[in-house]
Amino acid sequence: DITVQAWSPLQKGFFQGCFVDDPALPELNRVLGELGEQYGVSKTAIAIAWILRHPAGIQPIVGTMNTSHLRDICEAAKVDLTHNEWYRLYLASGKYLP
Questions:
Q1: Pseudo-torsion of CA 33, 9, 74, 28, nearest 10°?
Q2: Most CB contacts within 10 A, which of 6, 15, 29, 40?
Q3: pLDDT (tens digit, 9 = 90+) per residue, 22-35?
């Protein structure tokens, strides 16, 4: 059974908007910013790099008419998050590890 997500990989939910720079998610955005500075890319690139590194082999499908947004997304290909960085973002998003 394949589940298809029908919204942007950068959204919190169908109607909740983007999580990047959302003031309701300060810890996640702090870590996205730190890793973005470390790798020389945007928070958006780090978020997409996290999806690309997901152990389930997720491939984000993105669509935009905004060329700067598309450039940010493409920058994710330059980022190879470590396992520790991946889990740091996971925990910063409010998830926990058993």
A1: 10
A2: 29
A3: 888 889 999 999 99
Instruction: Answer yes or no: is 14 within a domain.
Output: no
DSSP assignments along 30-93, one per residue: HHHHHHHHHHTS-HHHHHHHHHHT-TT--------S-HHHHHHHHGGGG----HHHHHHHHHHT
Residue 16 predicted with pLDDT over 80: no
Interhelix angle 43-52/26-39, rounded to 10 degrees, is: 90
Which residues span the domain enclosing 58? 26-92
Considering its fold, how many domains does the chain have in total? 1
